[in-house]
Amino acid sequence: MSSAPSRVYAARLVGLPIFDPQGDQVGKVRDLVVSVRSETSQPRVLGLVVEVFGRRRIFVPMTRVTHIDSGQVYTTGLLNMRRFEQRSTETLVMGQMLDKTVRIAGSGVAGTVYDVAMEQARNRDWVLCRVAVQEPAKALRRKGQTHVVEWRDVEGLTLREEAQGATHLVAALNELRPADAATMIHELPVERRSAVVAALDDERLADVLEELPEEDQVEILSHLGDERAADVLEEMSPDDAADLIAELPPETAATLLELMEPDEAEDVRRLMSYVEDTAGAMMTPEPVILGPDATIADALAHVRNPDLTPSLAALVYVCRQPLETPTGRFLGVAHIQRLLREPPSTLVAGALDDSMETLPPEATIDQVAAHLATYNLVAAPVVDENGHLLGAVTVDDLLDHMLPENWRDQGLRPRRRRGVARG
């Protein structure tokens, strides 16, 4: 280890990129693996859980870490690409230590762990040295008082806690992109996953669910109460909600659809009515739709919505009333590049591309792929035989359906390098 800082906090380390000696990024830090023997002896840090490209998680021993600074981690480049599997003698700092209820010896102060620091011992091993503890909030305070104490001064870290909270782990997850948060949740022990799911708000849980494998989606949804499950489904994009509901037992699906808001449930039912892997089943029924009397300023204001994916924000769909799908007569699309070149006060109808070919809802997945590839599109309108816009199918919708079901677990493996397993 060269030029390493004397103390590194786990919450600041997680998410940092990891580079090989040539300066190529090979992944990101997702957790620390430690061996906890007792509350008096400092746990040895065995290594890092690293997410490599393709969302595969591997183990990188601390002996392979050559340098850590505020913005990145460097390794020897010798990585074992075998998927990380936690052993019974190992503890994950982020996944299992955060939010543990502990007591500070001497003062008797009780609180929850919100961070842990590691440092190098004289024998060059990395060990956990400090614990950051937060007391419960009191009176009008939003947050309780915080303490950073030596490892040996904290009691309760080695005890199994049946009702361990998830406040600080959820705070860390909220700093991640939904796909990265989903990967971390997927790897959590069952009891910790349940606590995290309970602590996430409905909107964030919906974002994460959309990024999880189907079996995880079904498992998580089945452990939510029907009312909350329906609320979470409402927060999901209709096409993702339809795919998830289709995986549920028919009686459960019917119950949840009845509990959803009528408009949201109607969108989902309509998507479920189409044959699987067709444009109708893949599309989103909520693209950016405007009338021909809208201005370009109106259109630009709509596509600035941060909740829109880039592919949905690339096109504005112009239709006659009604503007909810299925709409009135579809007139054409306006490309974001064209809108940016026109005066904001002019009508969006003046920037219309009425020559774009549309897709019928029964178009197969191969026909959708060929259509997007032929015309170099990231999205395309889906229109019925009467000229009504039903929705839009995007390139990310297409990829979700073309990739194998377990693509999140398989990922794309970097070139294999010879390495060593942890001992």
Secondary structure topology:
Elements: E1 8-9, H1 10-13, E2 17-19, E3 25-35, E4 44-52, E5 56-61, E6 65-68, E7 73-75, E8 91-92, H2 93-97, E9 101-104, E10 110-120, E11 126-134, E12 146-150, E13 154-155, H3 167-173, H4 178-187, H5 190-199, H6 202-209, H7 214-222, H8 226-235, H9 238-246, H10 250-259, H11 262-272, H12 279-282, E14 289-290, H13 296-303, H14 310-313, E15 315-319, E16 330-335, H15 336-341, H16 365-374, E17 379-383, E18 389-394, H17 395-402, H18 407-410
Parallel strand pairs: 2-7, 14-15
Antiparallel strand pairs: 1-10, 2-3, 3-4, 3-8, 4-5, 6-7, 9-10, 9-13, 10-11, 11-12, 15-16, 17-18
Helix pairs in contact: 4-6, 6-8, 8-10, 9-11, 16-17
